[in-house]
């Protein structure tokens, strides 16, 4: 077999997977370092005795998993393993953190309420849960099936996972192999980007506008051969966009020609949303899943999401949620069920829905009065147009004591959202909100 030198190592392989694997080994061993150029496609193909498309495919796989970067005529080189941005607060007390994307603590059930509900469920439990017990607790099943059936009146099978991220990761894993293509919104929820890259899937960006995922982008992704589509039907993070009825109907028509593509709806804001649920999953879709997490209204630490899906997907997902090893704690499930049906908690959720929407609208109006365009949309965040390089604006805001999210952190395609900021303002009082609006206007103008 012909080989190609790379530093003091050799690139080998006769298939795209083999070539990519060889390069990854050289990177893992430190023989190829960040910034090192990989051989030109034609050169490596000739040396290995393979078609140039084989090398192109290998490089594409390496790029999709973050091992390599391609710069057009600048060639392909080993990527710098810079950590990808993560959701959550910074913990740095030097700044006022409006970058976290967290729900407001006062709108979540307090510790005493959670403890009381958990104790109540424990008193009604018929002994310990043992290996082999069904993975979905009857109490949560009853609540979740009514919750899902109100929006999806046709048959589904229910599973419970350790949160929405866990659900999406397991759903993709039961359908895709390394290198397979998956359609993600662009800009995209940070954790979805990380999930896909770490698993080695190839991302196909689908642009998002004020009405949600775009039809042209979805058509292009399906034409590119994606095997799965992940869509946020409402409260898209970071933009706040929700699908309109006409847009959802158009997306369903497009997907109707691809019934075996797995369509995952991440309805993360469900019970807090000011918008109705408008599905992209049509009645004829053969592979689908609707994921609803409880983290935004019961708390991020209550690691739980319910997943409704078709029978085939449910069977494969169930194999990854074994009643012997990897099920979600029944105590946790019963506590979630108790909280979801508690009158006081439901009242607090209703108040939170109104608070988030009111605070976001008010902040958009503050910015408008200062000549800055922003969108409240739906969800926990405000999407701010800076009119220039948002990273530079973010640096200026840091100098003024504010921590914000540049829109480029959510981008799959370079340049997407580069002129936007995402800010989480629902915990700011009137004086702080006014000060932030002043500083954003000044930083953007500067």
Automatic annotation (TrEMBL):
PROSITE patterns attached to this UniProt entry: HTH_GNTR (PS50949)
The UniProt record lists the keyword Transit peptide: no
Superkingdom of the organism of origin: Bacteria
Pfam families named in the record: Aminotran_1_2, GntR
Family: In the C-terminal section; belongs to the class-I pyridoxal-phosphate-dependent aminotransferase family.
Record protein name field: Transcriptional regulator PtsJ
Region annotation (Disordered) ranges: 72-92
InterPro entries (UniProt xref): Aminotransferase_I/II_large, HTH_trans_reg/aminotransferase, PyrdxlP-dep_Trfase, PyrdxlP-dep_Trfase_major, Tscrpt_reg_HTH_GntR, WH-like_DNA-bd_sf, WH_DNA-bd_sf
UniProt keyword RNA-binding, yes or no: no
An annotated Gene Ontology molecular function: pyridoxal phosphate binding
UniProt keyword list: DNA-binding, Pyridoxal phosphate, Transcription, Transcription regulation
Organism: Corynebacterium nuruki
Domain HTH gntR-type stretches: 13-81
């Amino acid at each position: 077999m012909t080989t190609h030198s790379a530093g003091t190592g050799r690139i080998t392989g006769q298939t795209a997977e083999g070539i990519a694997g060889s390069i990854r080994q050289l990177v893992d061993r430190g023989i190829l370092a960040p910034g090192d150029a990989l051989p030109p496609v034609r050169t490596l193909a000739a040396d290995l005795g393979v078609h140039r498309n084989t090398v192109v495919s290998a490089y594409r796989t390496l790029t999709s998993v973050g091992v390599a970067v391609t710069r057009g005529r600048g060639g392909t080189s080993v990527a710098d393993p810079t950590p990808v941005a993560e959701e959550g607060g910074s913990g740095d007390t030097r700044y006022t953190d409006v970058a976290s994307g967290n729900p407001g603590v006062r709108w979540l059930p307090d510790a005493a309420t959670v403890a009381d509900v958990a104790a109540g469920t424990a008193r009604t439990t018929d002994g310990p849960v043992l290996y082999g017990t069904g993975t979905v607790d009857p109490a949560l099943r009853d609540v979740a099936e009514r919750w899902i059936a109100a929006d999806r009146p046709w048959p589904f099978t229910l599973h419970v996972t350790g949160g929405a991220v866990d659900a999406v990761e397991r759903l993709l894993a039961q359908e895709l192999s390394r290198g397979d293509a998956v359609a993600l919104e662009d800009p995209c929820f940070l954790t979805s980007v990380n999930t896909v890259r770490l698993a080695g899937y190839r991302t196909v960006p689908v642009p998002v506008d004020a009405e949600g995922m775009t039809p042209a982008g979805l058509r292009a992704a399906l034409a590119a051969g994606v095997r799965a589509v992940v869509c946020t039907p409402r409260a898209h993070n970071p933009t706040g966009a929700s699908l309109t009825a006409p847009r959802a109907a158009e997306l369903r028509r497009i997907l109707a020609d691809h019934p075996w593509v797995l369509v995952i709806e991440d309805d993360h804001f469900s019970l807090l949303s000011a918008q109705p649920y408008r599905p992209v999953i049509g009645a004829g879709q053969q592979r689908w899943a609707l994921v609803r997490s409880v983290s935004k209204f019961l708390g991020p630490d209550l690691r739980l999401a319910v997943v409704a899906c078709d029978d085939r997907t449910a069977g494969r997902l169930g194999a990854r949620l074994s009643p012997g090893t990897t099920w979600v704690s029944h105590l946790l499930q019963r506590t979630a069920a108790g909280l979801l049906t508690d009158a006081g908690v439901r009242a607090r959720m209703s108040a939170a829905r109104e608070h988030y929407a009111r605070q976001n609208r008010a902040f958009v109006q503050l910015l408008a009065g200062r000549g800055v365009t922003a969108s409240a949309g739906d969800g926990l965040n405000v999407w701010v147009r800076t009119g220039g390089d948002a990273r530079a604006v973010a640096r200026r805001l840091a100098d003024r004591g504010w921590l914000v999210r540049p829109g480029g952190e959510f981008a799959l395609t370079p340049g997407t959202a580069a002129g936007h900021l995402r800010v989480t303002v629902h915990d700011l009082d009137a004086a702080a909100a006014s000060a932030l609006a002043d500083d954003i206007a000044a930083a953007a103008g500067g």
